[in-house]
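Hi R.,

Here's the chain you asked about this morning:
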Amino acid sequence: MPSKSDSTFTLTLPSDREILLTRFFNAPRQLVFEAMTNPEHIARWWGPRAMTMVSCEMDFRVGGGYRFVLRGPDGNDYGFRGVYREITPPVRVVNTFEFEGMPGHESVETVTLEEVDGKTKLTSLALYQSTQDRDGHLHSGMESGARESHDRLEELIATLA
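And the predicted structure, written out as tokens:
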């Protein structure tokens, strides 16, 4: 099973249709949950550093949706959207995820937050419709984007603590 990790971030492939990200944050679970679910905070950390969030729309409730638009250094906009399926504060969020540039390739993300020794362990399991969808996302640069987003989230949390 492929695995790439550093001291706080791990990426594994638990099955042919899944990607599992694990990251430890040096903050209480409630603070991590707040930073991950408040659009004012998300606009400050979601996406790679080279991109700018130009739109962060959220209706954070079961059945509600979100749409994030990032602007790349090339000046192009990249949209991402989904629907919230389950919200259990501050423990778990389940939502769909779709890159608007490739419609019809929706995945389901399950994010779980667990307190471990004064830190928060985030696990994000993405389930894809096919192995091809999973591999396409994996090879799109999502790992470096996820690492940078999580680093930016850690930096933001430090300012909120």
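The helical segments are 29-37, 39-45, 131-160.

Let me know if you need anything else.
M.
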